[in-house]
Amino acid sequence: MDFSSQVASQLNAIAILPEGIVVITLLLVLIGDLIFGRKSASWLPYVAIGGLLVSVVALILGWDNPNPQSFLGSFVGDNLSIVFRIIVALSAAITITMTITYIENTGTALSEFICILLTATLGGMFLCGASELVMIFVSLEMLSISSYLMTGYMKRDPRSNEAALKYLLIGAASSAIFLYGLSLLYGLSGGLTDINAIASSIEVGTGLESLGLAIALVFVIAGIAFKISAVPFHQWTPDVYEGSPTPVVAFLSVGSKAAGFAIAIRLLATAFNPMGEQWQFIFTALAILSMVLGNVVALAQTSMKRMLAYSSIGQAGFVMIGLVANSQAGYSSMIFYLFIYLFMNLGAFTCIILFALRTGTDKISDYAGLYQKDPLLTLGLSLCLLSLGGIPPLAGFFGKIYIFWAGWQSGLYGLVLTALVTSVISIYYYIRVVKMMVVKEPQEMSEVVKRYPPVRWNLPGMRAMQVSLVLLVVATSLIGILSNPVVTVANNSVISSSVLESAILKGSVAQHAPDAVVKNIAINK
């Protein structure tokens, strides 16, 4: 084998074909804008959406790839990374449908925003499959810096500038902490950067090595907790959600969070697998704090975006139950719940954008009596909010049942009971909005709704938003009832992952250890 073919086999570009499609799409949008200028705004968003959907098709065709490693082993395109990359790519495609009219109404350039969004998508997709420390950090920074730029994209809006500044300052601090944790891993492993090699070289002992690994674990979890909006690393979330452009918030709530959970699974199941009890204890505390604070504080919110900000904090707590379970069912339930969360959360944000475009407000009290002026928007927002609350037979109910059952099987009784109580609390503030829209009498209609403009879907960009809203609402309504294929895919992605093999085995051994002890006692007697 000559040198060029050897390098080609080691790089294995086929494994990163979906990311390559996103790069080509990004270049097409950039070059199209340079050549055609503002006239290209009518068709460039659809080029971006098409490129992302082709990338999703490439990801599906790459299922069960016999040679998933790429970039000399620094990226693994296995089935586990494929499901997370699909979630990131789909969230970006749906976000672009919300963006067209929203950005055009602000008078800012649309193509530049799409380019930044595609860059963030690329960073998130690489982060989902990164298995080397440098690759992890570069992907994380690509996602983070693009997110900072999108957050402050509305330069004339003081709230957007304030949100971007807060996000940048807190994000830079969390990135530095995360990087310090990775550097400790690098030093403790004797200069290794591959997380699988680090896992096999590090053993939990006593003295300074054990202390160094514990500090590395705390610092890495702090960086991950910031990315997934877990308490107490959530301070940026309400302000960024309220001040940022709403499409940016939609992407951060799903795409960025999914990438954060993907890298959490890889790092904790490999490099920190010897410290399973320690990180499970930390994430148990983070999950309880997130569920309680997120859902309780959401009760007092008057802004829809701030309410969904605290709701996303609570939802992150629910997803962490699957992570703490550290079992096949736990990881599968995480993937299933995040996939459902993609549809119901983006559906809710699509409705909020539509209402804001027509009224210029996002106050909850201004939604009073909306059903009489816009039945489609009311139906869509009601179904998505009820699904987020876990009302049967919507998708969110089945997602919560699956993730709570996985936690119960792993013996996380206190965590699951806390989740059940906080989930009941969350239903109150979701139903409050639905009641506001549907139950109000004509004389109780808000002044904003009284001046509600005629619903017109033939405006530029509105048809794409209408199509995406219908698809999101249908998926939110039916995907729970028809969930068997999604659950099967989630299970297969976990079972076939070599990354999770040792972690699941260790978790099942620990789970069944008491039964084994009882059997040994009986045999000895």
From TrEMBL:
GO molecular-function term, one example from the UniProt record: quinone binding
A Pfam family recorded for this sequence: Proton_antipo_M
Localisation: Cellular thylakoid membrane; Endomembrane system; Membrane
Record domain NADH:quinone oxidoreductase/Mrp antiporter transmembrane: where: 130-426
Transmembrane region(s): 12-36, 43-62, 82-103, 110-127, 133-153, 165-188, 208-228, 248-269, 281-300, 307-329, 335-357, 377-405, 411-431, 467-487
Membrane topology: Multi-pass membrane protein
Family membership: Belongs to the complex I subunit 2 family.
Binding partners and assembly: NDH-1 can be composed of about 15 different subunits; different subcomplexes with different compositions have been identified which probably have different functions.
Name of the featured protein: NAD(P)H-quinone oxidoreductase subunit 2
